[in-house]
User: Fold this.
Amino acid sequence: MPTALRSLSRDGRLLFATRTVRLFAYGALSVVLVLYLTGLGLSAGQTGLLLTLTLVGDTAVSLWLSTRADRLGRRRMLLAGAVLMAAAGLAFAATSHFVLLVIAGTIGVISPSGNEVGPFLPIEQAALAHIVTAERRTGIFAWYTLAGSFATAAGALAGGLLSQSLQRADVAPVASYRAVLWLYAALAVLLAVCFVRVSPAVEIQAPPPGRAPRMSWGIGHSRRIVRKLSALFALDAFAGGFVVQSFAAYWFHLRFGVSPAALGGIFFGANVLAGVSALLASRLAARFGLVRTMVFTHLPSNVLLILVPLMPTLPLAVLVLFARFSISQMDVPTRQSYVMAVVAPEERSAAAGITGVARTTGAAIAPLFAGWLFARPALWNAPFIIAGALKIVYDVLLYRGFAHRAAEAKTGR
Assistant:
């Protein structure tokens, strides 16, 4: 085990465990979710609408819980999120009615992308930043990102293999995908058990009466910078929403006829590469600064994203996808560390929550358009091109607005 992780407290190790369990569940679901929903009889347009409404609901849940976590208790809000995740998994597995699916997806926590949704990430980031030193923060966040990427990769592989194995045993495709949803709900229950075991050491101490700053949605003096970062992160996430992992898997299925098991293998490899690349982030940030590291690794990955649908064969498309994932996630721990660096400790859950909600909001809108594009064979490649172009715009705006700020002095390793 790396030295950085051996020195973590019991709470730190628990937070790594909850990240791993959760992202495994998200990864497993992402490979089969669109296949499951279309197998239930939903059209591509209805599926896109459902995923959009699901992300909108996740946004509302995340905003409400994360902006209250520092005041009402981080552990309590994390546990509430785990309960909503379990409820959503059970509801999706139990019904095929579109309206009921919309209600369950909106109120509960479902990840169509394999990425973080709900209140977990911002509150866990704030808790980790609270129990480690500033010098170790970016490095710990890099390992935290790696743990999530490996878990997402393993989940994608497991979800694909489970559904494929069941189909080989003469289980209907929809029933095989439903088994992954039951697994998702069970892992949410395990997540709740882990959160119960986290100690009060992760909680922020409330300031004495009369000395607390004026807060709006949990943010005081940092309101301006949080607003600017939120707008940029929303743009980046909106672009990424065109190629969420569920839709990317669906594209490989439509374009090349890739089976669920093979899809699991492809996204297992992609997420492993993404996780390993995150480990380089802290070293690059210590030398070049957080924002420069974010931009100079993210920009070329977006060029590769545009190239994926232009590849004429499956091996070439997978190769370019892997190249893209090998550098695309270096901005994640640096972005998280930057947000923690520029706000006060008592604002961290709220700041991470608001910027995270901005990302979820942006991501929530895009699947509606992506579903419309995927419903038209002539436009199957468009989501990749649109996503890459918009992400390049984000990189340029982020560099112009933040590359030279004094907060870069708080980089940490």
